[in-house]
Amino acid sequence: MNIIFWAADSTVQTNDYTTYPQTGIGQAFPLFLKDGYTVENHAKNGRSTKSFIDEGRLKKIEEKIGEGDFLFIQFGHNDEKINDPSRYTEPGGSYKSNLREFIRAARAHGAYPVLISSLERRFFGEDGKVYAGEHGEYVEAMKETAKETDTPFVDLYSMSREALSEMGEEKSRKWYMYFSKGEYATHPDESLDNTHLRYEGAVNYASMIARGLRELGGIYSSMLIDNLAL
């Protein structure tokens, strides 16, 4: 059994009934995997590269990850929080250094690291176009780190921006925790959350990661169900 370990934040985390209908990308990703592959999702709400490492969460992955496994590394949303020193990282400095630590951890155990850029937030301007975005510096830093370390990179950020542009402001609401009061018994209040996902959004963005892996080819595409229409 090959295991995909996932280190990330709340956009990826596995949710339970208490947070329904919120659904993480890592929760949906097994839909695209062949038999013989499984996801062990270590993604946790509110974590950045810094806090994930400082809390010993990477160490826990290192205790279990082995040869032939994968480590998906997907951070950015919380690394940007400049007013929170427990989470903030500089995109061209500590963020890149931390990404390198995740990559080192995977390779030290014979596993394959994959860098995945952050999902875009669902923000549209008055002109109806997707907002300029706030992840740009971190996406570029991740791209640079991927190149410098010869690590595979999946650009979910760019794919999600393109998908949001095509879908438009109103139709894209169904992908996110953006809904009216009373729509869900477990979440009776109105939600205008443009960051976290519902099931359809999680599946949609998981499919984009699968597409990126298929484009990488080799061991990265071999984990996917054959003849997927992505």
Layout of helices and strands, plus pairs?
Layout: E1 2-8, H1 25-28, E2 37-41, H2 49-54, H3 57-62, E3 70-74, H4 94-108, E4 112-116, H5 136-149, E5 153-154, H6 156-167, E6 176-179, E7 191-197, H7 199-216, H8 218-221
Parallel strand pairs: 1-2, 1-3, 3-4, 4-5
Antiparallel strand pairs: 6-7
Helix pairs in contact: 4-5
Shape: globular
First CA to last CA: what distance?
Answer: 24 Å
Q: Give the low-confidence spans.
A: none
Number of distinct helices: 8
Rounded Rg: 17 Å
The description of the largest β-sheet is: 5 strands, parallel
Q: Helicity level, as a percent range?
A: 25-40%
The total strand number stands at 7
User: Helices and strands, in N-to-C order?
Assistant: EHEHHEHEHEHEEHH
Major sheet strand order? 2-1-3-4-5
**Mean pLDDT figure:** 95
Strand content: 15-25%
Q: So what's the oligomer here?
A: single chain
Structural class: alpha/beta
